[in-house]
Amino acid sequence: MHQSQEPQPQVPEESNYALLIRERIARYGDKTALRTKRANKWESLSWRQLGEKLEQAAGAMLKAGLEPQQMVGIYSQNKPECTIVDIAALSIRCVPVFIYPTNTAEQAEYIVNDAEARLLFVGDQEQYDKAVSFFGQSACPEKIIAFDRSIRLDASADTMYFDDFLELGKDSALKENIDDRLKNASQSDILTLIYTSGTTGTPKGVILTHYNILFSGAIHDIRLLNPSENDVSLCFLPLSHVFERAWTYYALSKGMEVVYLEDPKEIIGFIGEVRPTVMCAVPRIFEKIYAAAFHKLESASPAKKRLFQWAVEVGRRANNCKKDQLPVPPGLKFKHMIADRLVLKKIRELVGGRIRFMPCAGAPLSQEIEEFFYAVGLFVWYGYGLSETTATVTCHPPYHFQFGLVGTPMPGVDVKIADNGEILIKGGNVMQGYYKKPDETAAAFEDGWFKTGDVGEFAENGELRITDRIKDLMKTSGGKYIAPQVIESVVGADHFIEQAVVVGEQKKFVSALIVPDFEALEEYARSKGIDFASRAELVNRPDIVEMYRNRIEQRQSELAEYEKIKQFQLLSEPFSVDRNEITPTMKIKRKLVADKFKQTIEDMYHQ
User: Fold this and answer.
1) Measured in Å, how far apart are the chain's first and last C-alpha atoms?
2) 7, 172, 391, 407: which is deepest, by most CB within 10 A?
3) Number of domains forming the structure of the chain
4) Does residue 493 lie within any of the structural domains?
């Protein structure tokens, strides 16, 4: 069993997260709390204004008749209103439940009914229309509240606009009722249900309590590098995802300014304008920035390529000294100053130029990409966690960590490896169970340890190495076990590859479905004078296939022979959430993809 040697976390005494936020409102007053951009214009809320809106929203919920521990649904893109509803619900001991903004009507209906959410807040016309489509078909929801005044309301449903809803809560007498609710609050109250996006089966509601969130904040206080009210956090992953949700709670608890991005596809342009100092992210973001940097390098002159490679190597040597708390030799320090001015600073400016660190989890991150970002002066604070563990279980220590690993256990969190290689966890961050699913809850625990379903091992330095998901492990017909995520991470680091899905269960060798990075591929084709009428035509050209074959071969040099991709098929369209091929958090639904591309996969084994 592995435990942190750091101090044990001191969990705040507050019985409810909303009480902690009340203290921050009193402390920070006119400082900016929340910010967003609408119609090309920035809008801000101070802590004092946030407090007023929280009181109004909580009062309106009381008027709607919500009882303690009843659920409130939030079906929206990231907006300040989401956080207002979230914390307002907590203020009357209710339970905010987020729904992925891209979920279908059927998926949203399932969550609303399973949670019995009495109110449903929606972000845009599409979400509103989906909500109306199932309104009245069961007892929930009783009312739909639209955040945006431009949404066209349907007279057939009980609906209203958010600003009108807030007006209902402007009765000062309601404040006493809110205070009375909080007097009976307990850290064991349910804070939220996080519905797993589900690569298989029906989504399950993960029960997290106020203690879980307060404990999570306390362990990050010990591990992270001085997060404070001077930081600016960019909220762009869906708030329905435990990582962004828990991080936003943490950011607000530290008094940070939180900036909301509604459309994650706009992240690359938006980040330069916001210039955050911290933000949590998933590996896909770093893969895209890395691909963009190397994509530009492809067309650079030989001299510029040499300068780039020299600068990154100098950055690697200098920053690795800092990582290992060693002095940077004077000659290297001087070279680093030049490399930074000419190259490295420009790469950091792609993410605004002010980033102190970026917590990252959710999927495997290529060691090559992690090392590249550290070399240019961007600390991707890589870790591991699940919805069931209030996000973080392990992450790198600030110094003396090893690239490619996911860090040491957080303070107060115990981690051990079962005989079958499964990662088991105990700690104040572990969920209470799955909502209304006692059998699934019982199956998720063994002697008090949460069974993650992930396979891993501890390296000599005490950091965890993730091998794969137990359910994802594949066995070739030759009896060899392969970990598809590891292979996908190695191959997917190539900037000509957007997505890769490895297949090989009971097959004689490993193959893959490859989605090219079409921006890079199309520019390559034009530079080589290759004409094409469509992407489908481009990916089937023998010279393009051969180019990919060579790049994949180069990437696989460190893999065992039985792990190497022997055949692949280039696809003309990316895997999509809309087609149910990937989850909203970009995890591949392997069984569905294997079924959908069954013939394509079979063809690869008969070439």
Assistant:
1) 48
2) 391
3) 3
4) yes
